[in-house]
Each structure stands twice: as C-alpha cells, then as structure tokens.
Amino acid sequence: MSAGAVIVAGVLSLGLVEAQDEQEWVMPRTPEGYPDLQGNWSNATITPIQRPRGQSRVLTPEQVVEIEEGRQRHIDTTSAPSDPDREAPPVGGDGSTGPAGGVGGYNYFWIEAGDKVAVFNGEQRSSLITQPENGRIPPLTEGARERRRKSFENRSRFGQYDNPENRPLGERCIMSFGSNAGPPMLPNYFYNNNYTIVQTPDHVMIMTEMVHDVRIIEVGSHKPLVRNLRPWMGDSWGHWYGDTLVVETINLNPDQVNAYQWLFPGGSENLKVTERFTRADENTINYEFTIEDPDTYTSAWGGELPFRTMEGELLYEYACHEANYALSNVLSGARAEEREAEDLR
C-alpha cells in the first residue's frame, strides 16, 4: 500500500469516528428547555419488587439467561390455545386464586406481564427496591402493626361480599390493579403496564392504561391541599432539579393506602412519596421512588426501574367491566347466601 493510500485510509477512519460522534443521542427538550418526557412508555418487567433473600443487587449474566429463558418457556406453554372441549370449572371454582378467580380466565395469549429483567443504568437488577441494601421493605413500627391489626379486625366483621366498600378498588373500577398509577408507579405483573406522558409549561399529565387513571402534576410553585383533602393518587407537585423531574406527593387517599396493604401495610396519614423521572436515552426514562412514613416504617425505602418506549404502539381504552355490572351481581349473590343461611336455621 502506498503512503498516500495510508493517509487516505486514516482520513476515512477519522471521518467515521466523527460521524459516529454526531449520531450520539441528544436529550430532546420542550420549547421551555426542559427534558421532553412525552410519549408512550411501559414499565413491564419480570424483576420482582422485593429482592429474593440471598440474592445480590445485580444479577450475573448467567442468572439473567436462566430467568428470562424460564419466563419464555412459561409464556410458550401457557399461550397455547385452550382445549375447546375442556370441561367447565367446578361450581364455586377450583380453589385457585389470581386473575382466573378460580373459575377459569385468560390464558397467557392475553397477558403482557413482561419477559425481561429490569436494567437500570446498565445493571440487571434482582429487585426494584434498592433501599435499604437488602432490597426489601423495612420492618413496620409497633404503631403500624397495631393499625393493621385493627383494620383486619374491622373488615373481619363483614362477609367478603357484604358491601361495596369492602370490595377491592380494582374490582370496582375505581383505581388501578396493584399500584400502576401510584404513587409509586409500579408494574402489576399482569397486563396494561403502559403510560402516556404529556407535558405543558406548567403541568405533566400521566395517563395509566390500567383502569385509565390520570395523574395531573403541577410543576413549579404549589400550595399543598389541607390535610383532610385526600384525592385518589394524592396531592402531587413537581419541580425540575437539573434534568430530573422531581415529584412529591402527600395526602394519599386512605382507601387507596388501605387497598395496597402489600405495599403500605398500616400506612399512616403522614405517608409521603417522592418520585424522580430522568430521560436516560432515546428509549428509556429512569424512574426512582422513595417512601417516607416514620409512623409506619422503621426507615425510609425506595427503588429504581426503567420505563421503556412502546415503539409506536398505542394505548387503548380500558373498558373496565363494560359498565361494571359485576358489582351488583356480587352483592346480589351475597344477599342470596344470607337468605339461604336464614332458611337453614
């Protein structure tokens, strides 16, 4: 090769490097100069909220392969067409719990619970909770244990289907199943873990596909609601800290807190949730949350998870129960059971 050819090759190589640099991702911004979080996003994942005991914070590549391949085998098996000649479930159900409700339900063809481990800042995580170090919700205070005991005691006075107030919020199509809408906004490990974010100069709107919950977050100065006004999803306001949107929420509705006993066991009226949204790259928003409630937990706790773009997919209306006839049927069934019990006396 001649010296001239070497020089030309060197120039060509340099040009390729410069072209690659020019293609590096640039943070999209709104006309006001803030990071643009708008679009359709999903936080579906197979990474659990709490870390399995004995696991480290970051999974090894071998563990990731084992987990994700196992998930795919499960999806392949449970997505198979149902036998059209199968027998009906037994009267009263088969005793199983979960979405099928003991009387049959969706097969996995209709489910979109996620099939990948959560990756946050390049780390393949074993849990969404990262604080405290063990990746688990911290112990409850004595006061929280007493509140939870009284709550269970009060609910046990009634039959499971006695009244609409005792039925789950999701069943009544009032709030998301699980804590999809939040705060904190967590996957439900079932389906519809999808969101649409829209920004204006002074507000951020987050629409949750599951039960079509909508959060409208004021950005900038905010006058908190008085303590006795406790709307669904609480009183939220945000501010920009550099390129991170920080959202603080207080005044969570007590019925919402009580409904999420797996997340807020014995939660108090002083519960505060802080969320952070940071655009990490073209396809990712890094979402962080912190729970503070010294009347309930022995320490603050929180976690991290990615929101991934839905790559042009749309969110559809969640027509919960198609007019929610189920609730009247549930209560009618309870009254029928009471009449039967009375006749047997």
In a nutshell, what does this entry contain?
The protein is α+β, with helices and mostly antiparallel strands and 345 residues long.
Q: Give the SSE string.
A: HEHEEEHEEEEEHEEEH
Distance between the termini: 104 Å
Helical content stands at 10-25%
Structural class: alpha+beta
Mean pLDDT: 86
**Major sheet:** 9 strands, mixed, barrel
The tally of beta strands, per DSSP, is 12
Instruction: Tell me the fraction of residues in β-strands, as a range.
Output: 15-25%
Tally of distinct domains: 1
- State the strand order across the main sheet: 1-5-6-7-8-9-10-11-12
User: Whole-number radius of gyration?
Assistant: 24 Å
What is the general shape? globular
Low-confidence stretches: 1-21
Count of helical regions: 5
Q: What are the main properties of this structure?
A:
single chain, 345 residues, alpha+beta, nine-stranded mixed β-barrel, two-stranded antiparallel ribbon, 12 strands, disordered N terminus
What do these coordinates show?
Strands 1-5-6-7-8-9-10-11-12 form a nine-stranded mixed β-barrel. It has one domain (about 40-80, about 100-335). The chain has about 350 residues and is α+β, with helices and mostly antiparallel strands. The chain has helices spanning about 5-20, 60-80, 140-155, 255-260, 325-345; strands at about 40, 120, 125, 130, 195-200, 205-210, 215-220, 235-240, 245-250, 270-280, 285-290, 300-310. Residues about 1-20 have low confidence and may be disordered.
